[in-house]
Design goal:
The complex is a heterodimer of chains A (about 500) and B (about 350). Chain A is of the alpha/beta class and about 500 residues long. Chain A is built from 13 helices and 23 strands. Chain A is globular and about 75 Å long. Chain B is α+β, with helices and mostly antiparallel strands. Classes of the chains: A alpha/beta (about 500), B alpha+beta (about 350). The interface between A and B is large, with 37 and 40 residues.
Chain lengths: ~500, ~350
């Protein structure tokens, strides 16, 4: 069965058809304000040009940077109420305490801090203030906000209080969307709460966006199931993705790196993705993005996500170059207006694309419009871009050994064939749509979150891993491809005997 | 200070991030931290010493609370019927160094640039006060609820540790304490001097290295006279919360020059002993610090996790800790390991092998 992978980016909506190990066809169209018509155009074009009937498609996988961009660009986010259950602990650091002021101003709604929560050993911190919770729920209903995030001290050990708070909110605030922190994160109250509040702020937009995806599929006559890609390169059903948009935050770079691995056949490489405005440099390790160690911030907010370790620099096809100084490349860019702004397309601005055409790296638009550029200037600007890329690649490498580099993205022509520390620059077909390819080959996961009692830790962990692998295979993963991606065990001192909560997550390629 | 004290925490003491956030709020409200040199204290000055007790994991959920830590000082003043002249740090490492800073800001009290550990340690009897055999009492202990205690007297530091640890566990493995008050003379003779300045210096070193894209780990090693022990990737983490402590081991698979080797580190809140393929390479009281290879941020025993790329470094311990009487309190045997202390910094053979 063939699959369609779609990448809905800020500039372009790309679509590819993948059959087994091969990309059948790929198209690129501008992203539209309503999202849907851009997808519809790409779907129609890719099916039509490849002469594949809609009935021949087994699944559609969509990756999107929409949710992250909403936070980064401070748009389409809803104000949310915050409920924190943990007093008298946590009093000095209320919800939103470490948020950037501009984002907080957009999202921060009523904040209610209530008594309750748990101790590390499972006892109640203090009795949960149910009366206060009901009063808070009524105040939230009156405030008119449409979403609320609930966090409670030690809820990853025991979610009961958060669930009860959620029920009270649903009773008192009909139609409100509730995000509970234990559904999104682990130990670490502030970061877990941040993610919960971001999620709540994005739910309305995510529902709308995912609804537009489904509508586009319906209009294109595709009856196949719709999946949305997640941070870790796996997919979930569309309705679950709409409820948890934060889980798709990093899917763009993940898809790009996974797509590069698929297209190049390489498991270990540096991947350089040159877009219209920025270049992202990441590392493939055994076919997966290398993850960042540090606390990951999204739009300035600390989260506890694991995301690909990326270095972004301000260099892309639309990057502006100063005609007076060949060393002044970027970081400003004409972005998606490249087809109207660049010299070779009849526009007024000198961009990195114009330099590449003048240098003979690329033949698009009207070459005569850059023929007048001074050869020495063009050479100096090319050297500058080479230095920028070389520095970025060097900073992302873990040791001095030369590594292969996979060049992807619409601006991949800016990457020179020889870079220091790089053994070979690999250019692949369909490099411009690596994200959509990554979405099409997204994986299936299996997860186990289970309490084991009076079993050796090693046995408990091994049992959980075996079960998670079985779940993944049942969900459609190819047996040999299943790999461990996350493992965590928390001792539960408050339960009788020697109790251990083990959480294991594995992922595998879809069986084809 | 947050970056530096987290590194000096040797995996324990908790991430100072929450305290940093609270300190910023106090700063914005016009409150100031006045830091003074311990050597400027009159002998007869009365100095409070504050710290937070408990498991770092608990602070990840219960965060910090400056007013509660400050209330331990007020409670001690009421008990003594005497005002304090200044407040000193119990433990520079991790989140605890900030407790004196938050208290000093809230009570408008000078903060003395010294502490009783020079790093972080899991127990009250692992301090310079214990090493110098100063009195261990009285202590005040305050909870986020209305639970307040005074430990009027204790046989010695070990008993004070045992009694307060039990109480701390009952309170949910987290409690604010004001330790036995000290005179100016005691502060000058029996503490690790200028460790608050050291934390600030390390933090500045890391930040300066980041600005110029230099290796922050190397910068700290060079600036503080430390050694790189190992580079690798976390392969396994075993954790147990027992008796109010977080205990366990971290296994690290080597990368780069250490490929093919495995480093194992045992911890009790803080990293205590490191073995390279079954050979001991570092023990307390030398500082064993786990750092993010790229950012130079410290990684704590409660946040270390599978897959992280880390560099393990050793920093020299203050001389008072490595003295004969110091090692009785804070050497490997005090942590239950039948090993003699051999400082990383006096093992030339090992240094050559890993240079």
């Amino acid at each position: 069965m063939m699959r369609i992978g779609i990448d809905v980016g800020g500039t372009n909506t790309d679509a590819v058809i993948v059959d087994g190990g091969a990309v059948i066809h790929a198209v690129k169209n501008p992203t539209t304000a309503d999202v849907m018509s851009g997808i519809l155009a790409s779907l129609g074009q890719v099916l039509g040009e490849a002469a594949v009937p809609a009935s021949g498609i087994g699944a559609v996988m969509i990756g999107t940077t929409h949710f992250t961009n909403a936070v980064v660009q401070r748009r389409d986010v809803s104000p949310v109420a915050a409920v924190r259950i943990g007093l008298p602990a946590t009093a000095t650091l209320p919800p939103f305490v470490d948020w950037p002021a501009d984002l907080s101003a957009l999202i921060r709604g009523p904040v209610h801090m209530l008594r309750g929560g748990y101790e590390v050993d499972g006892r109640e911190l203090v009795p949960f203030d149910r009366t206060g919770m009901r009063a808070a729920a009524r105040a939230i209903a009156e405030s008119g906000v449409t979403a609320v995030g609930v966090s409670s001290v030690f809820s990853p050990l025991n979610p009961d209080i958060e669930r009860e708070a959620g029920e009270i909110l649903h009773e008192e605030c009909p139609g409100i969307s509730v995000t509970l922190s234990h559904e999104l994160g682990r130990i670490g109250l502030l970061a877990r709460e941040n993610v919960t509040l971001l999620n709540a702020a994005l739910v309305a937009m995510a529902r709308h966006t995912v609804g537009a995806f489904a509508e586009a599929l319906a209009q294109a006559g595709i009856a196949a199931p719709l999946f949305i890609t997640q941070n870790d390169g796996t997919v979930v059903a569309a309705d679950e993705a709409a409820a948890f948009p934060v889980r798709s935050f990093a899917s763009g770079p993940t898809n790009s790196l996974r797509g590069a691995a698929f297209l190049s056949g390489l498991e270990n490489a540096v991947v350089v993705d040159v877009g219209g405005t920025t270049t992202d440099v990441g590392n493939l390790v055994r076919g997966f993005p290398r993850e960042a160690n540090n606390v990951v911030e999204v739009g300035g907010v600390r989260t506890l996500f694991r995301m690909p370790d990326l270095l972004s620099i301000g260099l892309g096809g639309g990057t502006l170059c100063d005609p007076a100084d060949p060393r002044a490349v970027g970081p400003r860019s004409v972005g998606f207006r490249l087809p109207e702004r660049a010299l070779v397309f009849g526009g007024p601005d000198l961009t990195a694309t114009d330099i590449a055409v003048a240098a003979g790296l690329l033949d698009i638009g009207d070459r005569r419009r850059v023929a007048g550029l001074d050869a020495a200037y063009v050479a100096a600007a090319m050297v500058r871009m080479r230095v920028m890329l070389a520095e970025a690649v060097d900073r992302m490498k873990t040791d001095a050994t030369p590594v292969p580099l996979v060049a992807v993205g619409g601006g991949a022509f800016l990457i020179p064939d020889d870079l220091p520390g790089v053994s070979e620059v690999i250019r692949v077909p369909h490099a411009a749509v690596a994200n959509a390819v990554g979405a099409a080959i997204a994986q299936v996961s299996g997860e186990v979150d289970q309490i084991f009692t009076d079993i050796e830790r090693a046995t408990a962990v091994a049992t959980a891993q075996t079960r998670a692998k079985a779940h993944a295979v049942r969900a459609g993963a190819a047996k040999g491809s299943v790999k461990l991606v996350e493992m965590e065990d928390i001792p539960l001192a408050y339960l009788p005997g020697n109790s251990l909560r083990v959480r294991v997550r594995v992922v595998g390629d879809v069986r084809l | 200070m947050a970056i530096g004290s987290w590194i000096l925490g040797t995996g324990g003491g908790g991430d100072p991030y929450f305290s940093l956030l609270e300190a910023r709020q106090h700063l914005a409200a016009g409150k100031r931290a006045r830091i003074i040199d311990p050597l400027s204290l009159p002998d007869e000055a009365l100095v409070a010493c504050v710290g937070q007790m408990g498991a770092p994991l608990v602070k990840q959920e219960r965060l910090v609370d400056g007013p509660v830590i400050a209330s331990t000082i007020t409670m001690m003043e009421e008990y003594l019927d005497r005002r304090f002249d200044a407040v000193m740090l119990w433990e520079i490492g991790g989140n605890n160094g900030f407790q004196a800073v938050l208290s000093g800001m809230l009570l408008d009290m000078p903060i003395v640039d010294c502490d009783a550990m020079g790093r972080a340690f899991p127990q009250a009897d692992m301090t310079t006060f214990s090493i110098c055999e100063l009195t261990s009492y009285p202590w005040t202990m305050v909870d986020i609820r209305r639970n307040r205690m005074i430990f009027v007297e204790a046989e010695d530091w070990s008993w004070m540790e045992r009694m307060t640890r039990k109480a701390c566990t009952v309170l949910g493995s987290s409690a604010a304490t004001c330790k036995a008050p000290r005179t100016g003379a005691e502060v000058k003779s029996s503490t690790c001097l200028h460790t608050l300045s050291q934390a600030l210096r390390i933090g500045r070193t890391v930040k300066a290295a980041r600005v110029v894209h230099a290796d922050p780990v190397a910068a700290v090693v060079e600036g503080e006279g430390g050694r790189v022990l190992f580079r690798g990737k976390i392969a396994d983490v075993l954790r147990r919360t027992t008796e109010g402590w977080l205990r366990g081991t971290v296994e690290i698979d080597g990368l780069d020059g250490d490929e093919g080797r495995r480093l194992r580190i045992a911890f009790q809140n803080e990293f205590a002993v490191a073995w390279m393929d079954d050979t001991v390479v570092a023990t307390v009281p030398d500082l064993i610090c786990l750092m993010d290879t790229a950012s130079g941020d410290a990684i704590g025993t409660e946040t270390v996790r599978y897959g992280q790329r880390v560099t393990v470094i050793a920093l020299p311990a203050p001389a008072i800790l490595t003295s004969e009487r110091g090692l009785k309190k804070v050497g490997p045997r005090a942590f239950g390991y039948d090993l003699d202390f051999r400082s990383v910094f006096s093992q030339p053979a090992f240094l050559e092998a890993t240079a």
